[in-house]
Design a protein that fits this description.
The protein contains 15 helices and twelve strands. By secondary structure, the chain is α/β, with parallel strands linked by helices. Strand 1, helix 3 and strand 2 form a beta-alpha-beta unit. The structure holds uridine-5'-diphosphate (UDP).
């Protein structure tokens, strides 16, 4: 794993010195991250790199994962969808089960952090165990238009925290606690994002039987309806009438997402009629995902809702032209026609993909601009700084702190 000093050529010595100075001020404080899965999805992706880097900077940091059964995760997936504005039938039995699992975690989990950093709704009840430590609720999802019943249920826990963190300005809510705006980030030196030799990329293409004889259009995502994989296939089919290309839909599941396999099966069935569509259920393998992104001509992220969309940042960092929906945190990453193309529909996605496949120079320009935008705003070094300043601010008395 890369050490903090290795980021200097990418972000400059000043940024690294600054991180060391801030970290110094957190000496003696224990930070404890808690979420609901160690594998799969953006939160685990970030914590896997954030935790060791904080430790290397000298911030005493640990990461724990709550326990939950099938029913609990089926309920929290419904919460997730409902918070994103999707209609879900949530019964009183679901709320009771959520609370029973929450209570079991309260009873069993060792909470030793001076700062307890809770990610997303699944572990939210742990705040009932608060003592004289500081508690942060980190919301990674788009809650700009949530189902009111679920939001109200969560609200009673959120107000017990010292602070809430959101990824985009539109997600902030009326809350009686401090709110912070901190966007997620990618690690440019992780296996997911580091440079790869061409033979590694070729090997991965061969492994999955993907020819590089024609342009490759790719969406990498968990198989989740909110990522609209069927919409991606429809857009591809529309492009294919004019330009011969391949589509790669690659992803897997997450330990806290029970819907993955059924969405994958739906995609396989829908795609069966076209041999140039590759629907891949991937093992969690960062180098393979990295290779697929690098092998792609255009990367798509046609989400219907999105917290931030790390896959967009990953693609832009690799200098790829991206077509992505104008939802959630994606417009933070893509300025339309400058660092990628935004779309609002299947037809819009198809139009944008065609444009990029037909204009390679334009595609390169967007990709290059995208890479610089990610360098300046969405690398893990900026994220480390924001989090450490957030921790420090919890020991000050200001009413509002803007980072
Ligand atoms: N990812 C992965 N393997 C997969 C699917 C996704 O490693 O099969 C990664 C992807 O590269 C990204 C993260 O999981 O780093 C997904 O984060 P994002 O914010 O795009 O979406 P989320 O899954 O959190 O909704």
């Amino acid at each position: 794993m890369a050490r903090i000093e290795e980021y200097t050529p990418i972000v400059g010595q000043g940024v690294i010195n600054n991180l060391r100075l801030i970290a110094e001020k957190l000496k003696g404080k224990k930070v404890q991250h808690i979420n609901s899965t160690a594998v799969g999805g953006g939160v685990a992706e970030i914590l896997n790199r954030m935790v060791p880097l904080l430790q290397e900077l000298g911030v005493d940091t640990r990461w724990d994962v709550i326990k939950g059964g099938e029913k609990f995760f089926a309920t929290t997936k419904k919460f997730h969808n409902a918070l994103h504005g999707k209609e879900e039938k949530i019964t009183s039995d679901d709320f009771i089960n959520f609370m029973e699992t929450g209570q079991r975690n309260i009873d069993e989990m060792d909470i030793s952090g001076d700062i307890v950093f809770v990610h997303d709704p699944q572990p939210i009840m742990l705040v009932n165990k608060r003592s004289d430590n500081r508690w942060i609720w980190r919301c990674h999802v788009d809650v700009s238009d949530p189902d009111e019943a679920v939001w109200k249920f969560l609200y009673d826990f959120i107000v017990k925290y010292d602070a809430a963190v959101f990824s985009a300005p539109e997600f902030s809510r009326k809350l009686p606690i401090k709110q912070f705006l901190i966007a997620p980030s990618i690690d440019p030196l992780s296996d997911k994002n580091r440079e790869l030799p061409q033979d590694v990329i070729d090997k991965v293409l061969r492994k999955y039987g993907i020819g590089n004889d024609k342009p490759i259009v790719t969406q990498i995502s968990r198989f989740d309806r909110l990522k609209d994989p069927i919409g991606v296939i429809e857009a591809y089919l529309s492009v294919k009438k004019y330009i011969d290309c391949r589509l790669v839909l690659a992803g897997g599941g997450a330990a806290d997402d029970p819907e993955g396999v059924s969405v994958y099966e739906e995609c396989k069935t829908y795609a069966a009629k076209d041999k140039d569509i590759h629907v891949l259920w991937m093992a969690q393998d960062d180098i393979e995902i990295n290779a697929l992104q690098r092998a792609s001509t255009v990367i798509v992220q046609k989400s219907l809702k999105e917290g931030f969309g790390l896959t967009v940042a990953e693609a832009l960092w690799k200098g790829k032209p991206v077509v992505a929906s104008h939802v959630g945190g994606i417009p933070l990453q893509i300025s339309h026609k400058y660092s990628g193309l935004l779309c609002h529909s299947v037809e819009g996605a198809a139009f944008a993909i065609k444009q990029l496949l037909n204009s390679p120079e334009y595609a390169v320009k967007l990709g290059n601009n995208g890479r610089e935008h990610i360098r300046n705003n969405f690398l893990i070094t900026r994220h480390l700084r924001d989090y450490m300043l957030l921790f420090l601010s919890l020991y000050h008395n200001e009413d509002v702190v803007y980072l």
